[in-house]
Amino acid sequence: MFTAVWKDHYQLLLDHLLEAVYIVDRSRRICYWNQMAEKLSGFSKEEVVGHSCQEDILVHVNGQGQHLCLGLCPLAKTMEDGQQRSSLIFMHHKDGYRLPVHVKTVPLYGENGEIVGGMELFNVSVPIDESLKRTQELERLSYLDELTRIPNRRYFITTLQRKLVEWEHFGARSAVFIADIDGFNDFNNRYGQQAGDQVLKMVAMTMIKSMRGDDLCCRWSGEEFVGIVQTGKSEALKEILERIRMLVENSYIIDGENRLQVTLSFGGTVVRRSDREESWIKRAESLLQESKRKGCNQITVD
């Protein structure tokens, strides 16, 4: 049997890897979940072992927003053809947000040489220790939003001022965006403030974890978020915002029998020669309102 092949010899080793690992049988039912998988996903082994991975557990999507469990699963393909695969995907964390992870899938063979299951190894694209140190430093400087645990408005303004200096003296261009959760007041009225707070945290974590290391996302006020992207091209800005929009749209929290989801509208703009703080932000706000007029869950950039 499949479990007899690996359990006695490899379980102790897998339990202490610094890489997240889970193993499935040919029906894609999870039969092993190591300690790092618990840490990165938020799901304990008791919650996942015996279940299929698409049962509101990982629910992977790719960079185009396609649900990989629906015919595109790299682990399923590896079990079909025996080929190892590597890819960057976005995993569903237990807290609802999307987490970028590097995935490697490996076939597992039985005593007669037949494929009896598969193993997936995954790691987050930004090391947890590095992310934690950054959060602790922001908290020490009072630059951290208490609810969402991402940088706050004060930190955004400080960074924006620095970017304007870099633009004026060195010609280093950046772009600013503002994002707003669509229909958030109605959401709060329907599901309550506690659910609203959970959604705010989910959106914040999905946004900040889907951005590049040198970009910035902060909470602005209420259901609004702001950010700075290191680019001087509107096309590149739109591509980054589209990825965030798609990932938020595909994120959710479970509240009883309800799967709660929201969408974001965006306004983004590259810095101009005459810009100051107010003009740059005001232009992004105007573009955000244009996205709202277009029907929400939209991106407008210039």
Write the layout of secondary structure elements.
Elements: H1 2-15, E1 20-25, E2 30-33, H2 35-41, H3 45-48, H4 74-81, E3 85-92, E4 98-109, E5 115-124, H5 128-140, H6 153-170, E6 175-181, H7 184-191, H8 193-209, E7 216-221, E8 224-229, H9 234-249, E9 253-255, E10 258-260, E11 264-270, H10 277-293, E12 299-301
Parallel strand pairs: 11-12
Antiparallel strand pairs: 1-2, 1-5, 3-4, 4-5, 6-8, 6-11, 7-8, 9-10
Helix pairs in contact: 7-8, 8-9
Task: Write up what this structure looks like.
With 302 residues, the chain is of the alpha+beta class. It has 2 domains: 2-124, PAS domain (Beta-Lactamase), CATH 3.30.450; 128-301, Reverse transcriptase/Diguanylate cyclase domain (Alpha-Beta Plaits, 2-Layer Sandwich). The protein has helices at residues 2-15, 35-41, 45-48, 74-81, 128-140, 153-170, 184-191, 193-209, 234-249, 277-293, and strands spanning 20-25, 30-33, 85-92, 98-109, 115-124, 175-181, 216-221, 224-229, 253-255, 258-260, 264-270, 299-301. The strands form 3 sheets. The protein has a 5-stranded antiparallel β-sheet. A 5-stranded mixed β-sheet has the order 7-8-6-11-12, sandwiched between helices. β9 and β10 form a beta hairpin. α7 (184-191) crosses α8 and α8 (193-209) packs across α9 (234-249). The longest helix is centred in the middle third of the chain and has 18 residues, at 153-170.
